[in-house]
Amino acid sequence: MQIQFLGATGTVTGSKYLLRHGGSTVLVDCGLFQGWKQLRLRNWEPLPVRADEISSVVLTHAHIDHSGYLPLLVKQGFRGRIFCSAATRDLCRILLPDSGGLQEEEAEFANRHHTSKHEPALPLYTRADAVRCLESFEPVRWHEDFHPVPWLTGRLSHAGHMPGGSVVHLSDGKRSIVFSGDLGRGDDPVLRAPEPMPQADYAVVESTYGDRLHPHGDPFDQLAEIINRTSARGGTLVIPAFAVGRAQTLLHGIQLLKKAKRIHHLPVYLNSPMAADALEVYRHHRPELRISAEECEGICHGAEIVRTPDESRALNARKGPMVIIAGSGMATGGRVVHHIERFAPERRNTILLVGFQAGGTRGASLAAGAPTVRIHGQDIPIRAEVARIDALSAHADAAGVEAWLRTAPSAPRRTFITHGEPDAADALRQRIERNLRWTVTVPDYLQAFTLD
């Protein structure tokens, strides 16, 4: 068996891990690259294996950096099955068509305003391509064996992070490998904690927060302070948020704060039809959550849903105080970009970052204190307050990853560190080598290893 790393090396995006054995191949995760332009250009490059030679795909979860390449893979000729949890299938039904639609919209905008070097600018794939790929999904039950190919047995356990988030365990009967996917937190306010790490000969572990620890304290306390001081200025609070995971946690927190009368009375808008649709998945898969049925209903009814583009544009004409939650979480696209363009130049407003901001994204520029960000070909001045709540991250921090690894019945022969920027990946490598005394490797892009 051989593993080749086709993504998530030196970056937190583009997760793709190719297993080869006996003339067949299995791809674990199939994500888009995001962030720096040189990374995004990889989405247009051919894979080192033909799509029609890939036997099957196994997904850890539905986020676009793990699933967003699937429509293109099918468009290129992939005809196998895509195995995942039922919640991942349900969320991909929302996320993938939206991704295709956004790419069509961005190409259309670029052609209309001549902001692209390409004539015409083309989408990587379309909404129709995304809908077509959904026919290949095959959900599997938690903790039950499935077979991506005849020689390989798979099993999913809970990873937290988002509904459907899975740890993937694969074995050919002689050796086994476990993929952490994106590992959730033990103290997540909405999602259940990850299950213990399965026994495996090899492990592939994410390192998004491999070089840091999450702050102590209640993140909803910080959220209350930021909402109240923005409201006191008569300002608008704009929160870039991932449509699945972060948006729902924010709504849950705001509902708790309202119920406790800890924040000023002000309207809250969820400007993400995709996030609104995802609320139904939360309802349907509530056993994966740690909150009660009543609290789940609170998430689903805690904000005014903004559906149409006209309604979204109308928000920009409103006066504060108000809260706008909109995608995308790193401000790389989506409706939040238009809200940043409108509200960032005014000092009374606040932009709140609540998750990891990958290098090369607008969110990373905002987090670094950039005086301007580039939007639609113009430099938009940032005069609004830029605030952060890192404790709302849905990823385990360095200590959380180590704690999960310690639940393994015994040490793997080798652990591969992926899905982290270089400093984070190397810091986690050193931590594991020092504290657990495991053999650890940080692979390079396209590097391959034989699993003896």
UniProtKB/TrEMBL annotation:
<dbReference type="Pfam" id="PF10996">
    <property type="entry name" value="Beta-Casp"/>
</dbReference>
<dbReference type="Pfam" id="PF12706">
    <property type="entry name" value="Lactamase_B_2"/>
</dbReference>
<dbReference type="InterPro" id="IPR050698">
    <property type="entry name" value="MBL"/>
</dbReference>
<keyword id="KW-0378">Hydrolase</keyword>
<dbReference type="InterPro" id="IPR022712">
    <property type="entry name" value="Beta_Casp"/>
</dbReference>
<feature type="domain" description="Metallo-beta-lactamase">
    <location>
        <begin position="13"/>
        <end position="242"/>
    </location>
</feature>
<dbReference type="InterPro" id="IPR036866">
    <property type="entry name" value="RibonucZ/Hydroxyglut_hydro"/>
</dbReference>
<dbReference type="InterPro" id="IPR001279">
    <property type="entry name" value="Metallo-B-lactamas"/>
</dbReference>
<dbReference type="Pfam" id="PF07521">
    <property type="entry name" value="RMMBL"/>
</dbReference>
<dbReference type="GO" id="GO:0016787">
    <property type="term" value="F:hydrolase activity"/>
</dbReference>
<dbReference type="InterPro" id="IPR011108">
    <property type="entry name" value="RMMBL"/>
</dbReference>
<dbReference type="GO" id="GO:0004521">
    <property type="term" value="F:RNA endonuclease activity"/>
</dbReference>
<feature type="domain" description="Beta-Casp">
    <location>
        <begin position="247"/>
        <end position="366"/>
    </location>
</feature>
<protein>
    <submittedName>
        <fullName>MBL fold metallo-hydrolase</fullName>
    </submittedName>
</protein>
